[in-house]
Design a protein that fits this description.
This protein is an alpha+beta fold and 112 residues long. The chain has a single domain, classed as Orthogonal Bundle (Arc Repressor Mutant, subunit A). It has five helices and three strands, in the order H-H-E-H-H-E-E-H. Strands 1-3-2 form a three-stranded antiparallel β-sheet. Strand 2 and strand 3 form a beta hairpin. The longest helix has 23 residues. The chain is globular and about 55 Å long. The termini are far apart.
């Protein structure tokens, strides 16, 4: 049986990883991984529509995964914590070893 503190910790961690697990949010996080970007730049890099980017940025802002900086008329977005970029890089490293298994895993059906 899970203790309340442990269960709450797991639920919070699962919520954190949900921010990274949505393909659109992941594309946005990757786009701002190395530098602050405007919505227009994020749209160009990610291939998502502007409305989709704006909706997911609102979610990422609410969750504290990205920060917004106003520069004149334009808003720029960046990772709120550099460890988010490290987590993305670690994901890349792990995938170099396990990508084939993840790709064929029937339990983790990725949207196409």
């Amino acid at each position: 049986m899970l203790t309340t503190d442990f269960a709450q910790s797991l639920a919070l961690k699962a919520k954190l990883f949900r921010g990274f697990s949505d393909p659109s949010r992941l594309a946005i996080l990757e786009a701002v991984r190395e530098a602050s970007r405007s919505v227009t730049e994020i749209v160009e890099i990610s291939g998502l529509t502007q409305s989709n980017v704006s909706n997911h940025l609102a979610c990422l802002l609410d969750c504290g995964l990205v920060e917004r900086e106003q520069r004149g008329r334009f808003a720029f977005y960046r990772l709120a914590d550099p460890r988010g970029g490290q987590l993305l890089a670690l994901g890349d490293e792990i995938l170099t070893d396990v990508a084939c298994g993840v790709y064929v895993c029937p339990r983790y059906e990725a949207p196409e």
